[in-house]
Amino acid sequence: MLRLITGRPGPSGFGSATTAEQVTHGIDGSNLTAIVTGFMFNLICIYLIERRSLLMKSLRVTGGASGIGLETARVLAMRNVHVIIAARNMEAADEAKQLILKDNKDARIDILKLDLSKIRSVKAFADNFKELNIPLNILINNAGVMFCPFQLSEDGIEMQLATNHIGHFYLTNLLLDKMKETAKSTGIQGRIMNVSSLFYQVTYKGGIRFDKINDKNSYQDKLAYGQSKLANLLHSNELSRRLQEEGANITVNTVHPGLILTPLMRYTSLSSKILRVFTYFMWKNIPQGAATTCYVALHPSLKGVTGKFFSDCNEHKPNKLALDEAFARKLWDFSNNTIDAALKT
């Protein structure tokens, strides 16, 4: 907590006050290609907001012009990485691309459509990416939705789990062979990051309600969000274990970006605003919020480091449930079965 408040660096030499540019200083990623998903990071679902029309106008600003998705893409491009922005809103993604190019005319930025809440959109994105016939070194599975009222995706899956976990799980599986192929042909270790949250500890009793995922009556938005974030962590750990067993030259880690102040916070409830006043020392700005993701994606000191959880650019030990291998395997099977069922409908 003291490091969080003061910004004092941890063992890595970086801390909560470090920015994405600082953690990547001097790194040349000109031989790397990265996909950054979930470009509307950390948005509260629009259904929570009474002023819906005003929020819709601000979405473009929050997700593109000032979100950590943009900052992550911008800094990676600054370090000469070829960045593929995966976004549901292509207009917002193109605006983000133009903003990056305005400051860095040599940036290599492409955009592809991806709606993580839809299984078939994930499949289409993977197919479209493969058609580009380019390597894939880095996959950053950014977050999706947060604190949604109960709703089902078009595939009949509770929306927060569908977007934050199932979509990324399926996308990762579809792109894994490409990443293995790239790592083998180039000799460069691939890196996969799942963006989770310390909120993974705030979930339903037992962690993940496999038999009640779509139970509307007992649904609680914050616990459902924590459930999806726990799923991110379990996914990373199980995938890391499987790749190590296989001997694949790919690492998998989980990232907590921190509490990020974005323009969207203007529209949160009065109680949330009061809470922010008393927890102001815990909140990060956007360059700080993108730091841990960029650190895990690019820093040479993390070569070979896998199956870890990072917060404030330093390793953080998760709780016992997040490290439970049997529980992670159960989630793995549940996720595959859920996707298979969705594809059959």
Automatic annotation (TrEMBL):
Pfam families reported for this sequence: adh_short (PF00106)
Protein name per the record: Short-chain dehydrogenase TIC 32, chloroplastic
Domain of life according to the entry: Eukaryota
InterPro entries for this protein: NAD(P)-bd_dom_sf (IPR036291), SDR_fam (IPR002347), TIC32 (IPR055280)
PANTHER family documented for this protein: SHORT-CHAIN DEHYDROGENASE TIC 32, CHLOROPLASTIC-LIKE
SUPFAM superfamilies: NAD(P)-binding Rossmann-fold domains
Similarity comment: family membership: Belongs to the short-chain dehydrogenases/reductases (SDR) family.
